[in-house]
Design a protein that fits this description.
Helix content: 10-25%
Strand content: 25-35%
CATH class of the largest domain: Alpha Beta
CATH superfamily of the largest domain: FAD/NAD(P)-binding domain
Oligomer: single chain
Number of domains: 3
Structural class: alpha/beta
Number of helices: 9
Shape: globular
Strand order of the largest sheet: 3-2-1-7-18
CATH architecture of the largest domain: 3-Layer(bba) Sandwich
Largest sheet: 5 strands, parallel
Length: about 400
């Protein structure tokens, strides 16, 4: 019987383990450094309640050798085994690295004043610092930073967001949608400063290059994550902004795979790329299980993400490129969609913002059009009276 060993009990690793178990592939060993059941991370950045919301990925691991609360110290590719911190060794026939990512930290934060967010422990530390009427400073106006800002405002805190770039979400969203989201935050009382340069952090204080000092508790660094490639690099696997894998999520070692936030995949549509989204981890976890069992697969799914802030829901499919033509469609239920077309008129990306789930259906239809390589006429695409289903059927 083959043994499938998975390092990392996050979304990708856990879903791979569950898929292997369901397929009856052999012995499945799931190793996670965090104690307790694996959980989904999206709720961590949305502190709506007095407790951190924990949503388990699964509640039973019958049929899986689940080892939670223990870390892996090294991989021995020659012996095909992994050494655990508790002194045990586990042999493998196939190995999956689903080690995820680690929050980036500030080089000038020697005292580690700024909190970060990645785990339940991190979220608990932030929630413990919430005081109605207090002042939180968030470094970074990305998705996590803005989600935290919305949650802290709902808890009655004053919030200042400091962004080093000239606008929010510059890498992932069109400026029009980012500006609408920023406007909603400002309406809620969030102070957002762009081109902001932090020069020093001290307990309770944030110093800016404009000579302004902000009192703050907590200070939260939401400046992105870096792939956790430490085990892979020590084992001699190639890593460049992630563990390098082919379209089947296999490394140069035929018995070792990688998936989720740690994997830099050779995507047929986007080239070498690393996706940091919840759905990507889910999809790659399910697909890598098939690849580990010997099935010929190629990961070609388009990136998709969502965020809920205040009463607004935002969704994006594809990768944003500011050089593309943009077509706007107003939605009857409120909100709008921005479609991005390349120079050949092919639909490459779509993003939408509106109340609740107003944009969800149209973003899903846009994703299907992207998958089909649709070249819709811009005038029809922007016409709210022209059903997207009609354009999809015509693609």
């Amino acid at each position: 019987m083959r043994r499938f060993v998975i390092i990392g009990a996050g979304e990708a690793g856990t879903r791979a383990a569950l898929a292997l178990r369901q397929a009856g592939a052999g012995e499945v060993v799931l190793i996670g450094a965090e104690p307790g059941l694996p959980y989904e991370r999206p709720p961590l950045s949305k502190p709506k309640d007095a407790e951190v919301t924990i949503r388990p990925i699964a509640t039973t691991f019958d049929g899986i050798d689940a080892r939670f609360g223990v870390s892996v110290e090294r991989i021995d590719r020659t012996a095909r085994s992994v050494a655990l911190a508790d002194g045990t060794e586990v042999a493998y026939d196939r190995l999956l690295l689903a080690t995820g990512a680690q929050p980036r930290t500030l080089p000038f934060d020697a005292e580690r004043v700024a909190l970060t967010l990645r785990t339940h422990h991190h979220a608990r530390a932030i929630l413990d610092r919430i005081r109605p009427g207090g002042h939180a400073v968030i470094l970074g106006a990305g998705l996590i930073g803005l989600e935290l800002a919305a949650g802290l405002r709902l808890h009655g805190m004053a919030v200042t967001v400091l962004e080093a770039a000239p606008r929010a979400l510059g890498r992932v969203l069109p400026e029009t949608i980012a500006a609408e989201l920023v406007a909603r935050h400002r309406q809620a009382g969030v102070r957002i400063l762009f081109d902001a340069k932090v020069t020093a952090l001290k307990p309770g204080r944030v110093a800016l290059d404009c000579a302004e000092d902000l009192s703050a508790d907590p200070v939260i660094a939401a400046i992105g994550v870096a792939p956790d490639t430490r085990l892979a690099e020590a084992a001699g696997l190639a890593c460049v902004n992630g563990i390098l894998v082919d379209a089947s999520l296999r490394t140069a070692d035929p018995d070792i795979f990688a998936a989720g936030d740690c994997a830099a995949i050779d995507h047929p549509g986007y080239g070498r790329f690393r996706f940091e989204t919840w759905r990507n981890a889910c999809d790659q976890g399910a697909m890598v299980a098939r690849a580990m069992m010997g099935e010929d697969v190629a990961f070609a799914i388009h990136p998709w993400f969502w965020t809920d802030q205040y009463e607004l829901g935002l969704q994006m499919v594809g990768l944003h490129d500011p050089a593309r033509m943009t077509v706007r469609r107003e939605l009857a239920g409120g909100g709008f969609i921005l479609f991005e077309l390349d120079q050949q008129g092919m639909l490459r990306a779509a993003s939408g913002l509106g109340p609740g789930q107003a944009v969800a259906r149209d973003i899903r239809l846009a994703e299907m059009m992207i998958q089909k390589g649709a070249r819709p006429a811009p005038g029809m695409l922007g016409d709210a009276q022209m059903p997207l289903k009609t354009l999809l059927r015509a693609a």
